[in-house]
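<tokenise_the_fold>
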Amino acid sequence: MRHPARFGIAALTLALTAVGCTSSGSGPTSHDKAGGGRETTVTSCGRKLSFDGPPERTVALDQSSTEVLLELGLEDRMAGTSNLKTKIAPEYRTAYDKVDVLSPKILTSEQLRAATPDFTIGGFTDYFTKDRVGTREELADLGLPSFVSAVDCPKQNNAGSGDGGGKKAKSPFELLFQDYADLGRIFGTEKRAAKLVKDQRATLAAAARTADRAKDEGGDAPTVVWLYSVYGDTPYVAGRSAIPSEMSRTVGAKNAFDDIDEDWPTVTWEQIAERDPDFLVIGDLSERGKPGDSAADKLKAIRANPVMSKLTAVEKKRFIEIPGTEMDPSVRTVDALPRLTSGMKDLGYVR
């Protein structure tokens, strides 16, 4: 167990000073103060964050956050990155090479402190714990604002939805788009964030047209199991709250484990066989290098299991392989949609 971050006086002074700085060369600003400063306030996962100027030394706690920042052209505002699951996408490679890699794994409080950040961002709330970088409350007490993807905070971000005619809950993609917009405001890159949202909405719309074609074919929606990883002999599949469920709905399929209100629950091979899915999406995390991560490892485990091997989907090789990183909420998630629709066409589920 590691203790929470305890920033030194020099680091804390730098962080507090940098949060209040205004950088030349940034994009459009949110609010201009009389003295020329830029004042912005956003709410991230229930916590209000205020900035007098764009952050200068941001630390990203995972690959998803890193690639969002790079997509927004913010490599020069990054003090470091960490927790790389797979290779950085080719379009971000040049920008990524300008950023210090603080750790290839999950960052510790000591590593975060040494980077003297003025802002930190993570895709999931569980990075901000006492045995990792410290809780968000502890970091805030030290003058370090923290941002968590809205996708990991649906209850806070869907306040008012639910019982009796409240607002409709936002989809995971809408929450991702909210991240882009909020980060655009924080860093003064609103135009670039708006273009990213527009482009990704177009990809979503194209995938939704596939769903319309699937409906035209008649019959029930095909069922799918999303297999993310296998540890030992334990499969991890997408549950209802994981973004693959939304991707399934978008293209006119149904996640076979939508009845489990978790992101990536562990199940048994027998449970998968009982659902008897029409096809399986296999996540490839081969670059992470752990046993059971590659698509080849997963397929080997499926075919070696006496129950799974008898499924019609397995016998007829109804598999679609997708990079595992695209099965997590990130700027690359929409890239999974054309792969998914293309695979469904090959399998005959849409024309």
Remarks:
- The first helix runs from residue 9 to 19.
- Residues 9-188 form a domain with the Rossmann fold fold (CATH 3.40.50.1980).
- The chain has two domains: 9-188, 211-346.
